[in-house]
Amino acid sequence: MSTSSINEIPEEFRISPINCDSYLVNGQLKKWKGNTTEVFSSIRTPNKEGALKPTLLGSIPDMETKSALEALKAAENAYGKGKGLWPTMKVSERLKCMEVFVKKMKEHRDIVVKLLMWEICKNKSDSYKEFDRTIDYINDTIEAYKNLDRKSARFDKEGGIYAHIRRGPLGVILCLGPYNYPLNETFCLLIPAIIMGNTAIFKPAKHGVLLIYPLLQAFQESFPPGVVNILFGRGRKIASPIMKTGAIDVLALIGHSNSAVALQDEHPKKNKLRLVLGLEAKNPGIILPDADLEHTVKECISGTLSYNGQRCTALKVLYVHESIIDEFNRKFSEEVDKLKFGMPWEKDAFLTPLPEPNKPKYIKDLIDDAVKYGAKIINKKGGELSENYSFPAVLYPVNDKMKVYHEEQFGPVIPIISYKDIDEPLDAMADTDYGQQVSLFGRDVRKIGPLIDTLANLVCRVNLNSACQRGPDVYPFTGRKNSAVSTLSVYDALRSFSIRTFVASKDTPYNNEILENLLNSNESNFVTTEYLL
Ligand code: G3H
């Protein structure tokens, strides 16, 4: 599961090491002169001696706390205690900056996509999709903000008081994204945060980090100094010290709840800190006796194994009714074994190497533990190991003694549980710490109807006869319990990164004259009834 000769790689996807030697602070691309960390791809290519080794992709700064605090200062200054240029700027001006950015970002599509393929081993079509979806997200966010702003360009009157209500920024954001969508999910936090007038410090995830480098200049040239600050390095030297200062107003993080809790714990002013978090999930697929099995198997394949199951929305456990379990297991296992493994650039490669060096071993441990407690690997190729991959293992029967029953595996292993009574999966869902989505497969509305009524109270999206997913991005993406805090979508993210704030004025001739003068004078960017078209 490696590339034995460089010639096997199409010319357009070959890569030479990229040394990311700068970072963005206060509008300046500063050269990093300290320690650096090498970045490797788990895709193995021949070294000079011809031995297959993880491919060196380049290096990133291993930044120190001093630089992190310098970036924090820059973000704080740009916010300027609410007086800064950016948070007080006309909405139309902020949108212009974003339009400039998106135009510049598009110029880097090919290199960002190539790095997605090498750094996180995402296949070619999904890598292009991630880039294009992010561009669409930014454009949609611009339109959504125009719409929001248009709706705010008015006065309300209640109880003899005029109110001019808008959404205002919250302050300084610390933004941390995940490795599985290092561009899309990070930008789905960062873009709405800054467009609303906040300022940000952003540190990319451990994997999928070099791909931010080509975009540094676009950020620098598009936004005023200090609005976006981009750092590279380790969380403990960067994120923790920043949180400790108490200066952060919003922690925006997509990742594991342990990291989110640890960072919150560092913050001395708990009620000041707002949270926008996308966390772990263990979305179940529930397969009713009358489900169309052919269709269900197809959806379960994409739900469990798209991007090797490394999606927070992946189906991570399948509950199958006992009356159809044998047929489902047979059909599903056959389809899993047919999936094509390949390098990200190979045509139709559905399964690709795992970017995290320890992941194959973790997956193997989950399988061994499940087997110890009575599960079998029911597909022929399940668990076949190489240095950077573990072929998807379908495990059955799974029970609550096994680690794979409880843990979010985030990788290619599929636990299957058979049930007799529908209360079994429902109770299991209610007892977990997760509550993001569910997939429900079946047809009989007398069964499905009441089930939907319960499931909608356990998770935040019930997918009928289809795999779980985040998109389309206009729909609310959130979760209960330990799966999320706040809601993201093009529309909701603008709200998550802002707060309603307003000017109130008693209906008196004295005040009304002032308001009218204000509106005619253009002295305030807040009190304005200008329409954005
Ligand atoms: O990792 C979690 C992602 O938000 C999943 O998004 O459903 O579009 O793959 P997706």
TL;DR?
This protein is an alpha/beta fold. It has helices at residues 65-79, 85-88, 91-106, 109-119, 124-152, 184-195, 216-222, 235-244, 257-266, 293-305, 325-338, 359-372, 403-406, 423-431, 445-458, 490-496, 509-521; strands at 18-19, 22-25, 28-31, 36-46, 52-61, 156-158, 161-169, 172-176, 199-203, 228-230, 250-254, 274-278, 283-287, 315-321, 376-377, 385-386, 389-390, 393-396, 413-419, 438-441, 462-464, 484-485, 498-506. The site of glyceraldehyde-3-phosphate has 9 residues, from loops.
Give the topology, please:
Blueprint: E1 18-19, E2 22-25, E3 28-31, E4 36-46, E5 52-61, H1 65-79, H2 85-88, H3 91-106, H4 109-119, H5 124-152, E6 156-158, E7 161-169, E8 172-176, H6 184-195, E9 199-203, H7 216-222, E10 228-230, H8 235-244, E11 250-254, H9 257-266, E12 274-278, E13 283-287, H10 293-305, E14 315-321, H11 325-338, H12 359-372, E15 376-377, E16 385-386, E17 389-390, E18 393-396, H13 403-406, E19 413-419, H14 423-431, E20 438-441, H15 445-458, E21 462-464, E22 484-485, H16 490-496, E23 498-506, H17 509-521
Parallel strand pairs: 1-5, 8-9, 8-11, 9-10, 11-12, 13-14, 13-20, 14-19, 18-19, 20-21
Antiparallel strand pairs: 2-3, 4-5, 6-7, 7-23, 12-22, 15-18, 16-17
